[in-house]
Specification:
This protein has 165 residues and is α+β, with helices and mostly antiparallel strands. The chain is 41% helix and 38% strand. The chain has a single domain, classed as Nuclear Transport Factor 2, Chain: A, CATH 3.10.450. It has three helices and six strands; from the N terminus they run ααββαββββ. The protein has a six-stranded mixed sheet.
Length: 165
């Protein structure tokens, strides 16, 4: 037999409040989890943007040590003329050289999926040629980055030509 219990209306409100608070407390981790993922993705996007700019700086400076550190051993580096380089050829083409007079990146777009990131940008450069002359490049670039031991490293890059600016 059920025993009726008389509660004062204040007690009922208090219990309802307690139940509502408990339900909210149980729901909170589910509500926060997507937010935490979004914050982590934002942090990764910023880290990839920093890596993209760091690679640009190393290319401009001809800093072979930094180029080696920022690229994976399996690197495939595609130029806008369809020429492909592996890591050794890519680093060797820039190490200790003043290949660029200017190098600007714009129109950035970065998407992170787990430990892989896709970065796109427009690449505008003034290139120093061996004969002392210069030429320019105006290309679109797609880069694939992989997070390895907490650091973003370039795995692949492909460029495609754009009409002259």
């Amino acid at each position: 037999m059920l025993k009726k219990t008389a509660f004062k209306s204040g007690h009922i409100r208090s219990r309802r409040t307690l139940l509502a608070a408990a339900a909210a407390g149980l729901a909170m981790p589910a509500a926060i989890a997507p937010l935490g993922g979004a914050l982590a993705a934002d942090d990764d996007q910023q880290a990839v943007a920093k890596a993209v700019n760091g690679l640009r700086d190393a290319m401009l400076a001809g800093d072979g040590a930094t180029l080696r550190a920022m690229t994976m051993d399996q690197l495939t580096y595609g130029h806008s003329n369809s020429r492909l380089e592996d890591k050794a050829a890519f680093v060797g083409s820039l190490d200790g050289k003043n290949a660029f007079k200017a190098l600007d990146l714009s129109d950035h777009a970065i998407q992170v999926v787990g430990d892989i990131a896709v970065a796109r940008h427009t690449f505008d450069s003034v290139n120093n040629l061996p004969d002392g002359k210069t030429n320019t490049a105006h290309i679109k670039v797609l880069q694939v980055w992989k997070k390895v031991d907490g650091a973003w490293k370039l795995l692949a890059r492909q460029a495609s030509p754009l009409p002259a600016a």
